[in-house]
Design brief:
CATH architecture of the largest domain: 2-Layer Sandwich
CATH class of the largest domain: Alpha Beta
Helix content: 25-40%
Radius of gyration: 24 Å
Number of strands: 14
Order of helices and strands: HEEEEHEEEHHHHEEEEHEHHEHE
Number of domains: 3
Structural class: alpha+beta
Mean pLDDT: 85
Number of helices: 10
Distance between the termini: 32 Å
CATH superfamily of the largest domain: Ribonuclease H-like superfamily/Ribonuclease H
Length: 392
């Protein structure tokens, strides 16, 4: 810290100004604002949850108001316009807040109301990214990666600009919020952030070419039941660099996908059954977290969640109380899933590989199969054109 010109004291040159409040732009400013805002919300009757520290809920009789906070961007919704307006009035009296009306743009995600629900897209974000990497006029392609293709660690020559590589990959990671179809491809290029090769950057360019041809694609959310179901899959020993398996999972609330992931497992699996079972365990954890979130929102599904898997041996492990010699080393994962099945908190069912929606998150697929799974994940084009955006 140093004094601004003209404010220094010649007798005490070591003294500086004392800040009574955080200034916008300082490193600690977002944290100070968040603490100030979250400490005020309980005075309005809001409660927070350990499942998501940025989510707050207020219950007034049969009325519910939900507030989602990200630094200084806020989404406020509920089932009572009068209670929502009351909360807005209280917040406006305490903070300098601008009400932007109905939700249409939030953190780079465009939101369109349709006759059946909501349509989420990041087309403007994609256009900005394509302009940044000078690929606005690139030739589109049908899939984000080649079918069943895997990246190798030391393949070819090193890429000469690792910083740009990391920047583009970071932007692609944010795009997976509404574009689950590129999750596996982005998962692959994320593994080589430290020492990228030219072949890895070529894969990034293919993802961008795919996005160029699917600018209007986004996720549709429609009204329906509130039942949870999940699909888990694993590509056994699919990574040629360390022979670890890739876990793919997608969780649906009704017909709407609300959570998905493509992630490499932390240990090498000795069999496809083990790889599939570890994927089931990861999916069970995700289901537990979502159930806690729904309970906090006062949403009670009528039935326990259903977990679909395409490996009969892994399903048998979740029901069979006998510990086999070949599965002793995965005992924790076995007991984690088996306990929930025994307590009827989880139902495990078989699904054929052709109807395994999580397959798109574990490997590159042919064009017809890839497009089929994109349709299953509610990915499609919007009937409307996007008319710009504004920052909340």
């Amino acid at each position: 810290m140093s004094q601004p010109p003209g404010f220094g004291d010649p007798a005490h040159p070591e003294l500086v100004c004392h800040l009574h409040k955080s200034l916008y732009g300082l490193k600690q400013a977002p944290r100070a604002w968040n603490e100030r805002f979250t400490s005020f919300l309980p005075t309005l009757g809001f409660q927070s949850t350990y499942a998501d520290s940025s989510l707050f809920v207020k219950i007034v009789g049969s009325d519910i108001v939900v507030l989602l906070l990200y630094v200084d961007d806020i989404i406020l919704t509920g089932n009572s316009h009068s209670v929502i307006q009351q909360v807005i009035n209280f917040l406006t009296s305490e903070f300098d807040i601008k009400d932007l009306g109905e939700l249409h743009y939030f953190l780079g995600i465009q939101v369109i109301k349709t006759a059946t629900g909501l349509f989420l897209s990041q087309s403007k974000y994609i256009l900005d990214l394509l302009q940044k990497v000078e690929m606005v006029d690139c030739k589109p392609c049908d899939t984000p990666c080649l079918p069943y293709n895997r990246l190798v660690k030391d393949d070819g020559t090193p890429y000469n600009n690792p910083t740009a590589y990391r920047s583009i990959v970071g932007a692609l990671q944010y795009l997976t919020f509404t574009r689950s179809g590129i999750a596996f491809s982005v998962h692959q290029v994320c593994q080589f952030m430290q020492s990228p090769m030219m072949s890895h950057f070529t894969t990034i360019k293919r993802i961008l070419r795919y996005l160029k041809g699917t600018l209007s694609v986004g996720m549709s959310y429609t009204r329906g039941d509130l039942l949870l179901k999940a699909f888990s899959d694993a590509d056994w020993a699919g990574d040629p660099n360390d022979r670890r398996s890739t876990t793919g999972l997608v969780v649906f609330l009704g017909n709407n996908p609300i959570s998905w992931s493509s992630k490499k497992q932390q240990t090498v699996s000795r069999s496809s059954t083990e790889a599939e079972y570890r994927a089931m365990s990861t999916t069970s954890v995700e289901l537990d977290w979502i159930q806690q979130l729904l309970e906090f929102l006062h949403v009670q599904p009528a039935r326990p969640p259903v977990l679909f898997c395409d490996n009969l041996s892994a399903i048998a492990l979740s029901f069979n109380p006998v510990q086999h010699q070949r599965t002793k080393h995965i005992e924790i994962d076995v007991h984690f899933v088996r306990e929930r099945v025994a307590q009827t908190k989880l139902c495990v069912q078989f699904v054929s590989s052709r109807e395994q929606f999580a397959d798109i998150l574990t490997k590159g697929l042919s064009t017809p199969l890839f497009q089929s799974h994109c349709f299953n994940l509610m990915l499609g084009s919007s009937p409307h054109e996007f008319a710009g955006a504004c920052k909340a």
